C-alpha cells in the first residue's frame, strides 16, 4: 500500500490544544470492527462495552519532563535539550537545538545549576550522547526544571503537567504520553472492575519516533523506530486466563497493542518478556493477542493510522475518520477517543 492511501484532510481547528475536564468526558467514536458501523458516545460509556471475564491492559509508562532549557558554559548561549533514552546512570541520548551549539566537549548548565551536562558523542543521526552531573535523584532534579515534551502540533502551554500523564503512570522513561490512557480516571477504572473485568499493565516507553512521518511512498519500505517494553508475568497470566475462559483482551493505545503483539509475534505466545521492539503493523497483519482497541485519532499518513487500519480494516478506518471530521471530533494527543470492537 502507498503512504498516500492513509491521507485524510483535517481542518487545523480540530487539533485539540488542551485536555478536556474531567478526563472521561471526551467524546468516543465506537466502531464495529466487522461492519464498520459507527456510533457516538462519551468516554465514560466505555463501561457498557465490557463483559464479565474480559480484561483491560494499560501501558503504565510515565512521561519525563524531558524538555530542558539551559546555557552553554563558555558562551552563555541558550540551548534546548530533549531527553530521549537513558544509556546508564548519568548518560542519556538527547536531541539538542541548535545542534551547532552542542559539539563534543561542550558543557551546559540548567535551571539553578542543579544539573550540568557535557556532550561526549555525536551520533550519525545528529542526536547527542550527554553525560549529566547532579546531586541526589536525577528524576527529582528534572521534575523541577524540565517541561513536558508536548508534540509539535500542540502550541498552547500546558498549565498542569499531570494532564499529560495517565492516572496510573508508574515507570518513568517515556518521551511522549500513551495518550489513549489519558481518558481514564480512578473512578472509571473502579467501575470497569465492578463489571468483573480484571486490569493488567505493561510498560512501553514511548519514543519521539512515534511522531516521525512516513517518508517512503511504499509503506513496506518504512523503518520503524525501536522502543523498550516489558510484559510482566502477572499480566501474561491474566491475558492467558482471559483467553482460556472465552473473555476478550482490550488494549488501551497503540503502544499497548504493539507490546502485546510484539511478544506474541517474537515468542509465539503471551508470556513474561522484556526487550526492544520495532514492529510495524499495517494492513495484512494478523493479530495474535488483542480483541478490542481503545485509541485516539491519529495523524494522516502515520504508522499509527496504519496500525488502526490493520485492526479495523482499511475501508472501515478511513470512513470512520471521515465521519469524525464531519462530526468535529477533537484529534490527536488531547483529543477524543475511538473504541474498536466487535458488537
Explain what the structure shows.
The chain is an alpha/beta fold and 343 residues long. The protein has two domains: 3-63 and 160-341, 3-Layer(aba) Sandwich (QueA-like), CATH 3.40.1780; 67-145, Thrombin, subunit H, CATH 2.40.10. 20% of the residues lie in helices and 28% in strands. It is built from six helices and 17 strands. It has a nine-stranded mixed sheet with strand order 2-1-17-16-14-3-12-13-15. A hairpin with a 5-residue loop joins β5 (67-72) and β6. α5 packs across α6. It is globular, with a radius of gyration of 20 Å. The model has no long low-confidence stretch (mean pLDDT 95).
Q: What is the strand content?
A: 25-35%
Class of the largest domain in CATH?
Alpha Beta
| SSE series | EEEEEEEEEEHEHEEHEHEEHHE
Rg over alpha carbons:
20 Å
- Whole-number total of structural domains: 2
Helix content: 10-25%
Major sheet: 9 strands, mixed
Q: How many H/I helical runs?
A: 6
Largest sheet: spatial strand order: 2-1-17-16-14-3-12-13-15
Number of strands: 17
Give structural attributes.
6-stranded antiparallel barrel; 9-stranded mixed beta sheet; 17 strands; 6 helices; 20% helix; alpha/beta; 2 domains; 343 residues; Thrombin, subunit H; single chain; QueA-like
Short description:
The chain is of the alpha/beta class and 343 residues long. Helices cover 20% and strands 28% of the residues.
